[in-house]
Design brief:
Layout lengths: L10 E3 H5 L8 E4 L4 E4 L4 H13 L7 E5 L5 H4 L2 H8 L2 E4 L1 H9 L8 E2 L4 E2 L9 E2 L5 E4 L2 E7 L8 E5 L2 E5 L19 H13 L4 E4 L5 E2 L2 H14 L28
Helix pairs in contact: 6-7
Length: 258
């Protein structure tokens, strides 16, 4: 059996555990008698994730649920296969249900024609929806569900004591999950979600990509300020609150020709 490398009590992260990159951060919440997975990543990586779970001494049948932070393909492509193997329920936000169950390649970022990206997106049944204020009990551990829209309408975060499994809300370098109106992004919602995280008593953020980090309000403030500037920039098109941006008469900087 492989020695378990907990990042916090009751929390194993598969990339850290394996000492190599396995894609999206997959968190195993160890509740003693049972466990849950937060996200599963790409289908190609699922075999390695499940094998590592076995090597760590966990029974596949002891998985209580797979929790989807949101519907993006890099988080959910392996979801249907994982559900079949683990025989457990899949839970997600109500606004993530349709893209997951229909395998919507646009809303999940599986297909971006302009960049030649086309990733198969298997459909997966969502067994139960979860939303703001729900409590997920996994053995002797419990997760408080936060609705944190912005990156996607169905983006969730999960509080466990002083930890927040923060999805794609913010990363250690201050970057955020991609912002795209076709993807369901919403800048005012995003700003509100980040302000909630900043104002919370959380001590550590466990994101879906990159390293775990201590909550840094100065970092979050800088990110909020950047997103607030985006709300008035034509660069962000229909994500900007001023869209459509109309050029007022005389704003060209020279006298109007009569």
């Amino acid at each position: 059996m492989v020695a378990r490398r907990y990042v916090f009590p009751g929390v194993i992260e598969m990339n850290y555990q394996s000492r190599r990159r396995m894609g999206v951060n997959v968190y195993l919440i160890d509740g003693g008698s049972e466990y849950a997975l937060i996200d599963v990543g790409f289908l190609d990586e699922l075999k390695d994730v499940l094998e590592l779970i076995r090597q760590l001494g966990f029974s596949l049948s002891a998985c209580k649920m797979i929790i989807a932070t949101h519907a993006d393909v890099d988080h959910t492509q392996g979801l249907a296969r994982a559900r079949d193997i683990l025989k457990c329920e899949v839970v997600a936000h109500p606004k993530s249900v349709e893209p997951i169950e229909k395998g919507d390649e646009v809303l999940t970022y599986a297909r971006i024609e302009a960049q030649g990206i086309h990733i198969p997106m298997p459909r997966c049944k969502v067994d139960r929806t979860i939303d703001e204020g729900d409590r997920l009990v996994i053995g002797d551990r419990a997760l408080e569900v936060w609705s944190t829209p912005g990156h996607t309408a169905g983006q969730l975060a999960f509080r466990m004591d002083n930890l927040l499994f923060s999805g794609d809300n913010i990363f250690r370098d201050g970057c955020v999950g991609v912002i795209d109106a076709h993807h369901g992004s919403n800048l005012p919602d995003y700003i509100r979600s980040l302000k909630r995280i900043r104002e919370s008593e959380i001590e550590y953020l466990l994101p879906s990509h990159g390293p775990i980090f201590r909550k840094d309000n100065a970092l979050i403030d800088a990110t909020i300020a950047r997103l607030e500037s985006y709300t008035h920039m034509a660069d962000f098109g229909t994500c900007a609150i001023d869209w459509p941006l109309e050029l007022a008469r005389g704003d060209l900087g020279f006298d109007q020709v009569k």
